[in-house]
Every structure is written in structure tokens, then in C-alpha cells.
Amino acid sequence: MLVKKIEARKILCSNKKETIEVKVNGIRASCPAGTSTGRNETPSFHKLGIEYSIKLVEVLAKELKFSINCFEDLEKVESTIREIFKFKDAREIGANALVALEIAILRGIAKEQGKELWQVINPEARMIPRILGNCIGGGVHANKNSPEFQEFLFSPKTSSFREAKEMNLKAYKLAEEILKEKDKGFRKEKDMENAWICYLSNEQVLEIMKEIREKLVDIEIGLDVASSSFLKGQLYSYKSGSKKNDEQIKYLSDLIQKFGLFYVEDGLHEEDFNNFTILRKIARNCLICGDDLTCTNLSRVKKAIEKGSINSLIVKANQNGSILELKKTCDMARSRGLKIIVSHRSGETNDNWLADLAFAFEADFMKAGIIGREREVKLNRMIEIEDRL
Description:
Layout: E1 6-12, E2 18-24, E3 27-30, H1 50-59, H2 74-85, H3 95-113, H4 117-121, E4 130-137, E5 151-156, H5 161-182, E6 196-197, H6 202-216, E7 219-224, E8 231-232, E9 235-238, E10 241-243, H7 245-259, E11 263-265, H8 273-282, E12 287-290, H9 298-307, E13 312-315, H10 317-320, H11 323-335, E14 339-343, H12 353-360, E15 365-367, H13 373-388
Parallel strand pairs: 4-6, 4-15, 7-11, 11-12, 12-13, 13-14, 14-15
Antiparallel strand pairs: 1-2, 2-3, 4-5, 5-7, 8-9, 9-10
Helix pairs in contact: 5-6, 7-8, 9-11, 12-13
């Protein structure tokens, strides 16, 4: 494929944050924007701002004069960005800009070759991931009177992705019914990912999740603690009081045992590799996952693996910025036995490439919410992929 024209523009995500949409030869791609962001993420835009990122992307149209025919040719794109803009790293153009550009290019290749997007990345992919969906929300995605934990998640154990989507929707509706009964403050409010906002404690929400699991049977419960968001100094600040590191580890391990949790994400703060390791050793039958800890950053993922801090990994495209390095990160994590969770962001667009990446990267899970237009386009795209296999 020869790049003939590149256009870029500013758009708003579902959380009203600005992001970039790129068109390459008329083929679109856009990138989401997060709310709960780790300090080690690649900046979303150039240091001079989103408008400058857009300008740099459009300049590339005159510089990409070579043929781009496969996934590996993205290296030529990134090399050109480094060369013409005198960058040490192509991601200096901005993670959101680079992701949107590279996805648009890959879609252009797919169209020219009569392939699906995932086939350009990994034509050998065959594994449909499990759903990980946010049912009840708290933390910075909700409000100060909500639970401290950011996401209370369900993951159905079904034979198909379509069935899993339907089961999560049943769980979501059951949660609404139970919250009406047990939460006097419940007003059918939804957070940034369309999860229910409630006014209960973490334990009370988990009791509701457990009740739903008993009714649906083939469904598991997980948490995104997002602990860095309520760390005050060296203490985890809960409404019921503060916890030291050892108390936080015991609290989480007790919750894992009591509620049979299969997944806990960011249970400790984003620089605490050592205490992640302690929690992982204690909670042997639970997936201890890094998100803010690792930020889809290859060097941080390597450090987490070397220290034994995690046995599962969140992968977010614009935490890193380079789709090339994203694949390297997934390949390395898989080779070391980690479970891979390809994830959406709180601020999403109506683009659906997340599903193609999750499938192509052979992810174990795709974390993409339960309802809402921006979430459902991704879930429905995975169903399309499943149906065509």
C-alpha cells in the first residue's frame, strides 16, 4: 500500500477528553483516552499539545513514500517519524496519535489485501478471549461516596463470546435490581464505563456480586482496585480508616478467599513491585494483574516478571503508543506464562479495533465493559470475528 493522503482531527471521547482521529487514504482510526492513568504511561500527545500532534501526523503524508505491505513495515513508519522530526522515539509524536495512525495504516493494508485487520497482525490467531466486564463502579470513575475500588468485574465461563456477552448483560440487570433493594442512595447513575454507581462499601458490593454469581453459576468475580488512586502518603485511605502495606495485603487476600475472587488488578500502588510479589505468592489461585504498575511499558513488564510481581498483565494501546512494541510486550508476557488482558479505556470512541488487537495478540481476556455504544461496538466486533472462524 502506498500512502497518498493523511488527515487528522481532534475528537472527543466518551469521557469528554480530547483525542485524535486519523484517516489514511480515507480509512479512519481513533484512539481512546484514559481517566485513571498511570504516571509511567507514554504521553497522549506531543509536549506542545494535541494540535501539534495533529500537525506532525499530517506532515507524514509527504514522507511515507515507500510501500507498506505488512505489520512489520510499521517499523519503517516509526523510523521515518524518528528521522524527519529528530525524535529519539517515534512515540514523541504522542501515543494517541501514533496508535490512531498505525491502526489506520494496518486497516489500509487489510483493505488492499482483502483481509481482516487481525489477519494483518497475526494470521495464525485462533483463540477467542474471555470477556472481563465492569458491572459496578467506584473510585475516580464514580464519586467520593462510592466504593474505593474502581471496578467490580464479571467474567463468564461460557463456550462462546456471544453467550458471555449475554450473561454479563444478565448480571448487569440483576445488579440493578439488587442495588435498588439494598442501596438507599441508588439512582441508576452510571460511571464513565457505564457501570452502576452505588453508595455501598467494597464488601457490600462484593456480597451483591457473590449473590449474582450464585444465580448465574458460570461466572467469576474480579476487581480493579486502582489502589494508587486512594493512596495518601504511605497509607491506603478508606472511609473506614487507613491501611499500611501489610494491612492492604491482608485485606485483599482475605477478600480473595472470602468471595472466591479470580482476578485482582492493581491491588497495591504503582511503584510497589515488592508487595505485588508478596500478594501474588499468598493468593496463589488468583490472577494478580498489573496495570498502573506496568503501564504496557516493556521495561516495567520485564521488571514485574523478574520480581514475580504479577501473573497477568493489562495491555492498553495508548499506554504504550507503538503497536509494534505492544505486540513485543504481549509475546514476551505470553512466553513467561502471564495471562494477557487487552483493555479499553474509560474514555472510549466508537472504533472497534480493540477486538482485532485482542484476537491477534491471542489475549486471554478482553476487558471492554458491558453496555454502552462505545463498549458494545468492541464486543460485537469480537462476535463477528468468532462467527467467521
